[in-house]
Write a sequence for this structure.
């Protein structure tokens, strides 16, 4: 029997952003449209559907710039810990992932326990589940 690989459409979980961070992210995505249009579009899509909050009103366990995030790729069972940063601070060897990467754009604004179906750089979908978020003080 031949099996087929079917990608299912799943509703994306809610996204929460800090209002001042949201403005920076929009500017960043618009600046990146020329050199990285796919990731810029993904980030803008997440920003568009986000609920914005003052920093002190952001729901607990929400991924923001500067957060250290433990997440699981449910397809590969790979557990990763990264710190989400702005592009100029990225260093994959040090675990600092830019918000202008597919993974970074997928993590921003999610909360502990949520999962999202999200493509990698090659367009292959992965289900990423947020296990823990440690936000900077």
């Amino acid at each position: 029997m031949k099996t087929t690989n079917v990608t299912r459409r799943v509703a994306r979980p809610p996204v929460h952003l800090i209002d001042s961070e949201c403005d920076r992210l929009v500017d960043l995505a618009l600046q990146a449209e020329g050199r990285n249009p796919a990731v810029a579009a993904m980030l803008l899509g997440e920003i568009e559907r986000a609920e914005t909050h003052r920093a002190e009103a952001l729901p607990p366990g929400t991924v923001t710039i500067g957060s250290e995030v433990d997440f699981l790729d449910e397809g590969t069972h790979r557990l990763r810990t990264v710190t989400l940063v702005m592009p100029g601070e990225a260093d994959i060897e040090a675990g600092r992932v830019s918000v202008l990467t597919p993974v970074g754009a997928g993590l921003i604004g999610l909360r502990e326990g949520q999962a999202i179906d999200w493509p990698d750089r090659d367009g292959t979908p992965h289900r990423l589940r947020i296990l823990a978020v440690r936000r900077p003080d």
Observations:
- The longest strand covers residues 125-134.
- Strands lie at 16-18, 51-53, 68-73, 78-85, 96-98, 115-119, 125-134.
